[in-house]
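Entry 14. Ran structure prediction on the chain below.
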Amino acid sequence: KFPDAERWYNDVVTRFGQSHSGPGAMYWRAVAHYKATDDHTVLSRVAEDLRSQYAESVWAVKAIPWLLKESKKEVA
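Output, structure tokens:
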């Protein structure tokens, strides 16, 4: 089920990435990938992407715990 969710969220990011739904879809795509693979490295990359592309988004704030320690210092 998580691989299916990742594909669906990827479709939203691809088709509607610049819409209001884009940041949330990026966030949940990363969660689905992590749950499917136990690969946590995607979380910090997505947190960085959200911070750089959608800094004012609630999803960028929600992803702060995923940032590496060095990046968290820049946010504080």
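Residues 2-75 form one domain. Will compare against last week's run tomorrow.
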